[in-house]
Design goal:
Layout (H helix, E strand, L loop, with lengths): L3 H8 L5 E4 L3 H13 L6 E4 L2 E2 L4 E5 L11 E6 L1 H8 L8 E4 L5 H6 L2 H7 L2 E6 L4 H9 L3 E5 L7 E7 L1
Parallel strand pairs: 1-2, 3-5, 6-7
Antiparallel strand pairs: 4-5, 7-9, 8-9
Amino acid sequence: ACGDYTLTAIRRGAHRVYAFEPFPETFELLRRNVILNKWQDRCVLSSLAISSDDSDVRIDPKTFTISKTGLPIRTTTLDNFIEWLSIPPPQLNFIKIDIETHEIEAAKGMVKTVRKYHPKILIEVHEPNTIQQFLAIIDANYKAENLNTGGGNSHWLCTKR
């Protein structure tokens, strides 16, 4: 269900959760779940997509690929978002990434954040060598542990060595 990871984070003691959902229908489901569960004081919702730059793109919601006829999506970098909010270290300690094959673009836009806060990162990847590329980009002396329990995509927990 939309918001499961947000709920899990809050139940495990997260002071604040920043959730990004660029697709309007899914964003509305997330917003409703936050309200129904009375998480408004602990959740900051954004309709931005995390990427390597600030731009406007069109994404096909079925294939998650850039498309001339897709939904208009506004992107930003995690570095810019965190800077706008002026979050002081060490208050950002965990990042969860599930962005349907755009992990490398997100990595390019979060290097400063990872180096400043050293958060644990839970990431879902769709291609076998994506995790090595991701770690090479963030270049912050991180290691990755495969949490895969079988099935489709791989889940990795990345932590500072």
